[in-house]
Amino acid sequence: MSTRLVIIGGSDAGISAGLRAKELDPECVVTIVVADRFPNYSICGLPFYLSGEVQDWHTLAHRTIEEITGAGIALVLGAVVQDVDAAGHRISIIDADGQGRSLHYDRLVIAMGATAVHPPLVGLDLPGVYRLRFMADAFAVHQHLEAHTPRSALIIGGGYIGMEMADALTRRGLAVTVAEHGASVLKTIDASFGSLVNAELVGHGVRVETGVRIERIDREGTQLCVVGSNAFQTTADLVLVAVGVEPRSDLAQAAGIEVGERGAIRVTRRMETNLPAIYAAGDCVETWHHLLGRPTYLPLGTTAHKQGRIAGENAVGGTREFAGTLGTQVVKVFDLVVARTGLRDDEAAQAGFDPFTVEVTTWDHKVYYPGAHEVRIRVTGDRETGHLLGAQMIGHVHAEVAKRIDVVATALFHNMRVEELNDLDLSYTPPVSSPWDPVQMSAQAWTRAQRQKNS
Amino acid sequence: MSTRLVIIGGSDAGISAGLRAKELDPECVVTIVVADRFPNYSICGLPFYLSGEVQDWHTLAHRTIEEITGAGIALVLGAVVQDVDAAGHRISIIDADGQGRSLHYDRLVIAMGATAVHPPLVGLDLPGVYRLRFMADAFAVHQHLEAHTPRSALIIGGGYIGMEMADALTRRGLAVTVAEHGASVLKTIDASFGSLVNAELVGHGVRVETGVRIERIDREGTQLCVVGSNAFQTTADLVLVAVGVEPRSDLAQAAGIEVGERGAIRVTRRMETNLPAIYAAGDCVETWHHLLGRPTYLPLGTTAHKQGRIAGENAVGGTREFAGTLGTQVVKVFDLVVARTGLRDDEAAQAGFDPFTVEVTTWDHKVYYPGAHEVRIRVTGDRETGHLLGAQMIGHVHAEVAKRIDVVATALFHNMRVEELNDLDLSYTPPVSSPWDPVQMSAQAWTRAQRQKNS
Asked: Is ipTM over 0.85?
């Protein structure tokens, strides 16, 4: 008998699970239940659609519906899952045409993702106030931009989406204000780097207000009036609320599945839930952290792909384990690329390490060769063991920042000591690097500073 | 008593050794004997000086003389070393002013580098025929370009220098021909990639003749007539001979120091020669290969820096070992960047592995975002163990090819299996990558192809 695999969720984790299962076991019968009509869309691409850089939203699909079904996967689009009957090995759904039915499974993968957080503020449901998580959200914002040609926008939240949308809407000609409740934007990086991002925003005409917690939005005529802490007050034609995401685990919880960190589904490193035959993956689950050695909640597309692939492999008999996240992330804001991997100093200290952080500024390639750009690196290591703990990097979009953070991520994966980065045989030619790559220069600076500190 | 450290050679390895020794033991007395007046110059930068991209040759210095002496290092410039008296712990030199003297050392580092190979062909010493290794060579070519404004050039040799000089001289307006005796240019990469480089050259107006061994050069009036195998015949205003380098180990051999591969000085992984208190590093020594597990001759600036640093550390009491090369290399040819690390299929087979190579073509970032460039990757792994053996990559100069090869190099350093590349937590945002980085896509393609081959 071929395995009947049912997957709830048609984004990164769900599709990856389905494809991997079919790859390893072509006989298995895979059905993916998708809440909307846009399976396998790159939601990371939504800001670029709204900026106008992506002209045709169809291109945002990692794969077309035809490619997915062509791989032998059945898609049930526009369906709502009502419940999971773990004992009966079936789920109840309501089809796009309103008909209820149930699907029997041998193995189930829950990959329901996350939703945008609804912050506790008045006026969230007013026309002109949007969140950005699903294709429907993007269509709504796009429709507003086309129909009303707003001239100003307020973005609530200075995280990744907030930064990308500040870039996108500025590119579209809107006057953009970002309101962030923290002391600097991009709180995933250290404040000194956050202030560089801040400067990049300001340099492109974005108004940035930090230390502001938005309290209410009111409509006055065609405008939205927004009021926050510290006497913040502004008007805008459009408001985008981008204050983070939370896991969609209600359905799983109702079925008796345990949740942990931030309400995310608890899974083993094989992506098993506490219930037999039920796996979970992606933005709805806890993520094992390679350095912390414990689960955390870190919803990222890269991780969702990996976890989905593992869930799919194990659902058809595999025993693969998720190797763990390092929280590697990168974002482009105008001409800057900002990346991080591993732990920041404060995160490392909180986790019981003895961290020490050094910042270096250097060039992406030999400065004598035209087009050299500055790269700033903050490298964090453990004072006691000398082990690398993390790095943050910021530089021009052509400074190969993202792939340099990947070298650090690969080193972190192998628990290297900071000093050992100098042993890596990295590539060099004057137009792309230096004989010691910037990553290695930062390692040398760290070791020197640590020696001086200790002596 | 402070250690007297004498270093012969003022390029990458020699300067690195001196700086590292002073860093770890500020009391040590470091003297570096330099054959010319250009210590620590980036000879990798010479083609960019000759192309006109680097306007001022002074900027080619990794460090100025003032920076080096400011670090407490004594420089003896323009000096010829006559012999090494290993028993007496002294070297004899002839100063720039013709005076002979001897320098006593407690520790000696030989870092004399390599010279350009003189191939066995008639006419090598004619005016207008150049090699390119030292600053003096670059000045001579530059002088020729300025004084005679040549309109055509023949480059003998299709290696790194040949490629960079074809680019450089074309950029300067010369009609360039490259004559390569092998079947394709850049024989450090597989022929299929070599032909892409060939096409890039041809696309920029360079004439490429492969399978041609140059036999003689004659001067006829203001022109050079060049004749080679396969009825090759051409005239050129300038000829550049770039057929590789060989280690400068004569002086060391005369002192009783053993040599090995290609006549390069034999060293331990601590950069010790067979004689006590004498270390050697850089392009004049054998290089330990991480994957082959044996010494090889692979003269590269990155390796010279590493080995010099280790020699300097050990000369003042350290016990550090060179971790080994992977042969990681990158070159920019017009708008293409070509990189490799580890072993090619044929090299791996020769070394006793059971290699299998897969080529994939993908995009450097999500293709929906503007400016996506193709990246081609050839990944080689061992069929039996599944271990990664190497990769070659080719793509546009903005496709982050060099740092992607570095991710593979870091993985190789840790002896990862090809499939394990998928476990790496690499960075993603649509403008710089995909949820699975191209490196990981190539790993998945390799694993799939291997499974299909085995089934």
From this structure: yes
